[in-house]
Amino acid sequence: MVDDEPEIRRALRTGLGYQGFDVRAADSGEEALAQVAGWRPDVVLLDLGLPGIDGFEVLQELRSRDRRAAVIVVSVMPGERDKVRALDLGADDYVVKPFGVEELLARIRAVLRRQAAIADGEPVIRAGDLELDLGRREVRAGGRPVHLTPTEYEVLRVLALHAGKPVTHTTLLRQVWGEHAVGDRYNTRYVVAQLRRKLADDPARPRYIVNEPGVGYRLES
Amino acid sequence: MDTGAGVFSVAMRALRSRALPYLAGAAGVVLVTGGIAVVRPVAVLPNLSAAYVLLVLWLSALWGWRPAVAAALLAFVAYDWFFVVPYGTLWISAPRDVLDLVLLLGAALLGARLVSTLAAQRQGAVAEAAESGILYEVAIAALREPEGTGALSLLCRRAVDSGGLQAMALLAGEGEAAEVIAGERLSRADLRQARWALARGVDLGARLQDGELHLMRIFSPRREPRLVTLSGGVAVFWLREESQPTQDQRHLLAALFGLAGLLLDRRRAGAAVERARALEASDRLKTAVLSSVSHELKTPIAALRAGLSTLSMPQAGLPDEHHELVAGLDRQTSRLDHLVSDLLTMARLEAEVSLERSPQPFEELLGSALHALRPLLTGLDLRIEVPPHLPLLLVDELQMERVLTNLLENAAEWTPSGGRITVGAERQADGLGVWVENEGPAIADEELERVFAKFWTRRKGGSGLGLAISRRIVEAHGGTIRVENRHDGPRFTCCLPVEAGVVAAERTAGG
Question: pTM higher than 0.90, yes or no?
Answer without folding.
Answer: no
